[in-house]
Amino acid sequence: MPESQKATVRVLILIGSESDRTVMSKTVDTLNELGVASRLEVASAHRTPERVRELVASGDRDGVCVYICAAGMAAHLAGTVAAHTTRPVIGVPLAGSTLFGFDSLLSTVQMPRGVPVATVAIGEHGAVNAAILAAQILAVGDPALAERVAKRRAG
Ligand code: RP5
After folding, report:
1. Is the CB of 96 under 6 A from ligand 1?
2. From atom 14 of ligand 1, which residue's Cα is the shortest distance away?
3. Measured distance CA(103)–CA(2) in Å, rounded
4. Which domain holds residue 130?
5. How far is the CA of 26 from the centre of ligand 1 (A)?
6. What average pLDDT does the structure give for the chain?
7. Partners of 79 in the β-ladder
8. Residue 73: CB within 6 Å of ligand 1?
9. Which atom of ligand 1 lies closest to the CA of 19?
10. Ligand 1 mean position to 32 CA, how many Å?
11. What's the CA angle centered on 148, arms 145 and 152, to 5 degrees?
């Protein structure tokens, strides 16, 4: 697709591993339903920290408004992204370990004061809610999107 026809990506979704893709496809689907342009990238806070930093730098430069970050186990992805941007960061803790996501919930939600991550529910419910929350943030300045979000939430 030519550069000029690409919709500006307003939500950048980062997942810690390819194994997180299935559940996070719910985020992509929900944003598509709401007409919000997004892109999903695999980048790990532990395995590819430099790639995370570069994706946030280019996201901020290219007009990303909200970051959604999903990871399991010692889930530091959302916190790492929040360290590199002042744009809103939503964290989705994922299950799959022997602790069923309780580990990733605490790793994502317990950010120190000054560097917030808005943390949603573990797994699929969180994946959908992250998309709706991102759309709600964007809808503050976009009445047509606000209407689509209201409709989605009603039914
Ligand atoms: C986290 O560890 C990922 O986000 C994933 O949820 C979990 C397991 O990763 P893989 O071993 O499947 O790559 O970093």
Report:
1. yes
2. 16
3. 42
4. 3-154
5. 18
6. 96
7. none
8. yes
9. 12
10. 25
11. 140
- The arithmetic mean of pLDDT across residues 118-128, rounded, is 98
- If you search the block for the tokens 């007009």, which residue do you land on? 63
Ligand 1 centre to CA of 43 (Å) is 10
Q: What is the CATH number of the domain that holds 144?
A: 3.40.50.1970
| pLDDT at site 155 | 77
pTM: predicted TM-score of the whole model, two decimal places: 0.96
Tell me which residue has tokens 């989705």.
Answer: 92
Buried b / exposed e over 42-56, threshold 16 CB at 10 Å, is bbbbeeeeeebbebb
Percent of the chain with pLDDT over 70: 96
Tell me, using a 6 A CB cutoff, whether residue 72 lines ligand 1: yes
84: its two tokens:
């590199």
Cβ contacts of residue 8 below 8 Å, gap of 6+?
A: 37, 62, 63
How many separate domains does the chain show? 1
- The confidence score (pLDDT) of residue 3 equals 60
Q: Is 60 exposed, middle or buried (0-12, 13-18, 19+ CB in 10 A)?
A: middle
Q: What is the dihedral of CA 56, 57, 60, 64, to 10 degrees?
A: -40
Nearest CA to ligand 1 atom 9: 17
